[in-house]
Amino acid sequence: MPARAIASGTIAFGLVSIPVKLFPSASPSDGIRFNNLHRECGGRVKYQYYCPKEDKVLERDQLIKGYEFAKGQYVTFEDDELKAVAERTSGGIDIIEFVPHSAVDPIHYAKAYYLAPDGAARAYQLLAAALRKTGLSALARHSARGKQYLVLVRPVKDGLVMQQLHYPAEIRPIADVGIETCEVKDAELELAVQLVEQGAVKTFAPGKYIDEVRERVEALIAKKVDGEDITAVAAPSAKAQVIDLMAALKESLGADEQDGQPSDEATAQPPAAAVGSDSGGG
Question: 159 versus 251: which is more confidently predicted?
């Protein structure tokens, strides 16, 4: 089925305007979805707006937007008040500056959209070629749906991709996670590097990977539709926790355990188990 544009816009490239259409780069709506049904009659349930304070169901026109500025305290807004401060939806993609492809940490990446020319193929291809030749991407502001988005227009083989970015305030610092620090021993690091290099590939080939859970769910659905009874499969037993990191690394590499002495520092950290147990997937 041909892709359908979800919006249109205009890239401002200096004094050059490039009308474009936006297409989703992924199809999450194609995922398997389940509806909530009433167990007794099989009817699909509907969601309602319920006010526990007055113990009654409300209609949509009885609702108002509210922002909780303190615990249990809200300031309310009418729709016209919110519209007054919303970004005017122009569809504009206004380039601010150009940056190297690698300058933007992928943690900032949000949704991605394909951009296609909308009657200005020559200008579109010119921008794409210029970005490819310079190795740069265009950082821009995109106005849509009453909001202003920070985006990265980057070149790909056959055109341009608009990568929506998270603003810095939306990124949680890794320091919030509380990662424990510890010493990395040279001998262990050498084996870990060997293990990484053993499973290294030169290119990313996404076609090699499939959603195994989706396949199992689809097979389960097919059986249920055919009226088959489903027997639960016993969950696989948990893998033993790695205690000797050096021994686990050597076993992962298929090394002779007699080549060296085990590490004198026992560890029970989950990352050690991951290094020792995931070697079969490379």
Answer: 159
